[in-house]
Design brief:
Layout (H helix, E strand, L loop, with lengths): L5 E4 L3 E5 L5 E6 L2 E4 L4 E4 L3 H18 L6 E4 L4 E5 L2 E2 L2 E8 L2 H7 L6 E11 L8 E2 L1 H6 L5 H23 L3 E15 L2 E7 L7 E5 L9 H4 L5 H12 L18
Antiparallel strand pairs: 1-2, 2-3, 3-7, 4-5, 6-7, 8-12, 9-10, 9-12, 10-11, 12-13, 12-14
This protein binds thymidine-5'-phosphate.
Length: about 250
């Protein structure tokens, strides 16, 4: 059988042409990278878990009215999504000081922020995703002021909803990164949540122990990386039967 046309290969995912126009297949790899690709590796079973976790979180967000590109999961490592025009801006929402914010401002990791902070980075591998302001985004035409208002409001809704959802399973949502895209339906354009939401793109700390349950375990060589991703899936109640076995080929679900 002819393999589908590959549209794009990123660090952790591959996008293929979907079965119908306007759709894409998002394939989740086990590859992990950090520090502008200076550190690379494999987290066994990550693709399977992130596919499930992102499916679950996007579905729950859809349930509360947050528009997303997610359509349905196809198999262990693939999901069907709507093709959108990606806005070249990464949106980071922070509740607790960690990572680059802790470093930039000298605020100790773990310090609760007085209010949620939204930051933007311009998506560019060549430029190392520089942080930008709303002024840059609108002046350079990456998004209009109206689109940016919508993005900010969606990002805060996602933060409120996911903070509560994770709190319910004993996890603190420290920060996370979102991507958005433009989706056209007839002549109408909507901003929708795209990409993925997973322990690759969130900082998740156990509420009791503050133990990290996300990609920082890989970035900082903390060990038990696979176990952390599995534990997030387990607490969400979506750990695949028999664990995240490394299923290389697609297994089409009926
Ligand atoms: P940072 O503290 O390194 O700026 O990261 C903030 C959040 O964004 C954290 O949850 C990890 C996530 N993130 C990504 O998903 N992709 C990236 O390339 C970076 C730098 C961060």
């Amino acid at each position: 059988m002819a393999r589908r046309r590959q549209i794009f290969e990123g660090k952790a995912k591959v996008l293929f042409e979907g079965p119908e126009p306007g759709t894409l297949v998002q394939y989740f790899k086990d590859d992990a990278s950090a520090f502008k690709n200076m550190k690379t590796g494999t987290i066994t079973g990550k693709g399977v878990l992130n596919n499930r976790i992102s499916e679950y979180l996007m579905t729950r967000l859809g349930d509360v009215g947050v528009p997303t590109h997610f359509m349905r999961r196809l198999n262990m490592r693939e999901q069907l999504v709507r093709e959108v025009e990606i806005i070249p801006v990464e949106v980071v929402v922070r509740n607790i000081s960690a990572g680059s914010l802790a470093k930039r401002f000298g605020v100790a990791e773990g310090t609760p922020l007085p209010r949620s902070i939204v930051e933007y980075c311009y998506k560019s591998n060549e430029l190392d995703d520089p942080m930008v302001s709303e002024e840059h985004i609108t002046a350079f035409g990456w998004a209009t002021p109206q689109e940016l208002d919508e993005i900010m409001s969606l990002a805060l809704r996602v933060n409120d909803f996911l903070s509560g959802l994770f709190l319910g399973i004993g996890i603190r949502l420290v920060d996370f990164r979102l991507e958005f895209g433009r989706l056209w339906e007839d002549d109408q354009m909507r901003i929708v949540l795209a990409d993925e939401i997973s322990p690759d793109s969130c900082r998740l700390w156990d509420i009791k122990t503050n133990e990290k349950m996300d990609k920082d375990r890989f970035r900082r060589d903390l060990g038990k990386v696979e176990e952390a991703y599995q534990e997030v899936a387990r607490r969400l109640g979506i750990l695949p039967e028999g664990g995240p076995r490394d299923m290389k080929g697609p297994e089409v679900m009926q």
